[in-house]
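In practice, a research group might receive sequence data for several interacting partners and want a quick structural hypothesis before committing to experiments. The following worked case mirrors that situation: the sequences arrive first, and a predicted assembly follows.
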Amino acid sequence: MNNPANLSYTKSHEWLEELEDDVVRIGLTDFAQDSLGDLVFVNLPQVGDEVVVGEALGDVESVKAVSDIYSPVTGVVRAVNEDLLDAPEAINESPYEAWLVEVDNITDREETLSAEAYETHCQTEE
Amino acid sequence: MELKTPLYPRHLSTGGKMVPFAGYLLPVQYSSIIAEHQAVRTAAGLFDVSHMGEFMVEGPKAQEALDRILTNAVAGMADGRIRYSPLCYESGGTVDDLLVYRLSAQRYLLVVNAACREKDFQHMQEHLMDGITLTDVSEQYAQLALQGPASEQILLKLAEQKDIPPKYYSFTEQAVVAGKTCLLSRTGYTGEDGFELYCAPEDACHLWDALMEAGQDLGLLPCGLGSRDTLRLEAGMPLYGHELSPSISPLECGLNFAVKLSKAEDFPGKDALLRPQKRIRVGLKITGRGIVRENSDVFLNGEKIGITTSGTHSPHLGYPIAMALLQAGDYPAGTTVEADVRGRRVEAVVTPMPFYKA
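A structural hypothesis for the assembly, expressed as tokens:
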């Protein structure tokens, strides 16, 4: 697996990049996109929406199934990657570039995993 | 505990993502459902469909016996021809849908859905006339489906022209493909030209390898259950358990061509099928945002009129499609309805089926 070491990871297969203090960028991991298969739809929140740790912030649909994207933080959406709405396959092609949302005003966050710990976690799910 | 088909080692070595299906471990995809789907539409795909069940029906009155249980007519079939037929309960609900292969006037091979195999056998035992032998021969066959416009070209590298059935829904009982004898039929579940090979389980891997090699430079891809489902959906073909079930009749499913109410023989369900049907199957093109999958409520002018039975993103058309069972009525093409997708109403338009035609 090729999970960048500068990111942190959730057990539900989202990645987080710390952009600045209490601002994170969120995406889906390579393991997630590979398990889901060809993605054909992404539903994302809007700028200004509040997201809550552990709750769905949106969902992705593959040909096979729909899957929730869980928010690893509580905060406010400050940016949405709207390019994905027309090109969800970008998540399959480059999961660590195709970010979903940026969240600021973070008041709560779940414990995340290092790249190494996340890879161990993925092995238990295979 | 799931069963493994004779091709299980090939699925693992080819990178198949294995899932349980109808009691078997089968690949849902190898590379990508969309890529596999497009290979079948533009070149060819190879599927393992060994899970399908096969029954032999034998006896001097085999044709009459089948006409007394199936909704379609078996009389009039020639040797080497195939016919599709539903099998019904007295209620008109569907036991299964199957293919009938006429080997001779006294011998027919039936190909049934894997998940229905046991109940089909029991239902047929109860309804078949005396003097007819019904045998479950599923264990004697593995089955490969070679589908797509390049299929014949691929087969011609491995078989003689005389063994290739020239017409859709015909077969060669003893064809030789890559040195192995198999039943070769021009059938499929994808809406494309294609073939299905019924072979001895021990020959399955040899045939798989030979076909993959013969198709390599023609764009042949190994294909899984995921693309099998998207392909049959685009082709408007029903899937048992979705568009057909014990509570859905073949007429509600729109299979009027395979229900011969005028034939002389009585068969289970005939009386019920002569009465007006409560529902009708329609095709939907999703014009709103999102994929409508099975079991979504369908609304017309705010009133619930039915439920979807299958739905997916159509890889070839590039937009989502669905099938729905609506209360009986007239729904002209272009009628706008709404489907509930996890609490959200998504717009859809009634569209003639098949969604795609080769």
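Before designing any experiment, note the following. The radius of gyration of chain B is 20 Å. The helical segments of chain B are 8-13, 33-42, 62-67, 117-127, 151-156, 204-215, 225-234, 270-274.
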